[in-house]
Amino acid sequence: MPDRPGPRGQQDPSGSTDRTGRQAVVVDALLGFAVFAVVAIAIGAGIGGGDLPPTVAYAFATALGLLMLVRRRWPLAVLLLTAVLLIVYYVADLPVIGLAVPAAAALYSAALFDRTRWAVGTAAALVVVSTTARLAEGQDPAFLLGYELVSTVAIMGAAIALGDGVRQRAEGARQRELIAVLDAQAREAESAELLARERARIARDLHDAVGHHLSVVSLHTSVAAEALEEGAVDAPVARAELDHVSQAAREGLRDLRSTVRALRDPGPRSDNGDGVERVAGLAHLDDLVASVRAAGLTVRVTGEGGPELPGLVDATAYRVVQEALTNTLRHARAETAEVVLERAEESLTVTVSDDGTGPLPGGARREPLDGGRGGTGLAGMRERVRMVEGTLEAGPVPRSGYRVRARLPLGGGE
């Protein structure tokens, strides 16, 4: 089976990293020297051994030590080569160096780099092969099985457990770091989403606060201009229209100032205890309808919102009526419009309809809201209604005209 680098490139789960390579090389060189020194000391003790010169045994010790220099890149290959070298070492009848201690570093490295199963399997194979061979040679079973086997298994198991434990702790630390990064990214995304929502809300507020009054100003200005044309000057009509322009401008400035105050100070400013500043609400519906009537459109109002409307629902209902009537003035060429407020136990339904047939700018007809081709006003209405978990329908009526209907749950303002 081909070997592969340790997890995450050259990163050592014990905490040493190979960003510059220097620290890793120093650590591996020290570990390799330790392996060589332990094996060389055992060789120097001279227990057992055949006819081969000691230099052969020291060559094996050097090879075992040098393998530690590549343990990070090829941990599995280092483990298997260490096992092969130990088997060849004992087949060559060289001085006894034990089994567990020369293999401990390779077993530790394999477990450290997520090769724990291979480490366990290799250790078990070495123990089985060594024990079987030594029993076949006639060594004392009591000593071999009662003492040496236990100590060998204990050392090997400790090396594997240590490597696996360090790896798991490092993996846990990396997971915590990753979670912290993901958490930070989630907070950034949430902040960006909140910022986008706030920008959309500001756009809606400014559009609603200024758009309606500018439409009224534009209509009255056009009428006043016609009244002042050369040869057909009608001063009383022009003066009346300019009065309407002045009134609409003052109301627009009032709404704009209220909106700016709400944006600057989002804290509670209401006197009714619900924490919502009534920049707009059905309490001002009469003023809104009066300004539209002054612009030449006949408006009928049926029903009422009722008492104790949630603040957000109240403001949304007002804005829906305002935007619908503004669209009628701008585009519909209508003569009449009707506003119907239907209060139920759990919802408020707002319907605004007109008898207009006029096109939108550019010759396009007014389309249903769900067709996706509505203008900014319809999009703003849709966003407002969604904020209170309501539904909005807008489109032509079967015979003539246009109708906007919003159903607003009374719990949407909580």
Tags for this model:
414 residues, 5-stranded mixed beta sheet, alpha+beta, Heat Shock Protein 90
- What is the averaged pLDDT score? 78
What does the radius of gyration come to?
43 Å
Number of strands: 5
Low-confidence stretches: 7-11, 267-278, 359-374
Number of domains: 2
> What oligomeric arrangement do these chains adopt?
single chain
Break the fold down into its secondary structure elements and pairings.
Elements: H1 22-45, H2 54-67, H3 75-91, H4 100-112, H5 116-136, H6 141-227, H7 235-264, H8 285-294, E1 298-303, H9 311-332, E2 336-343, E3 347-354, H10 376-387, E4 391-396, E5 402-409
Parallel strand pairs: 1-2
Antiparallel strand pairs: 2-3, 3-5, 4-5
Helix pairs in contact: 1-2, 2-3, 3-4, 3-5, 4-5, 4-6, 5-6, 6-7, 6-9, 6-10, 9-10
Describe the protein.
With 414 residues, the protein is an alpha+beta fold. The chain has 2 domains: 22-186, no CATH class; 280-414, Histidine kinase-like ATPase, C-terminal domain (Heat Shock Protein 90, 2-Layer Sandwich). Helix content is 60%, strand content 9%. The chain has 10 helices and 5 strands; from the N terminus they run H-H-H-H-H-H-H-H-E-H-E-E-H-E-E. It has a 5-stranded mixed β-sheet with strand order 1-2-3-5-4, with helices on one face. The longest helix has 87 residues, at 141-227. The radius of gyration is 43 Å and the shape is rod-shaped. The two termini are 64 Å apart. Residues 7-11, 267-278 and 359-374 have low confidence and may be disordered.
Give a short summary of the structure.
With 414 residues, the chain is of the alpha+beta class. Helix content is 60%, strand content 9%.
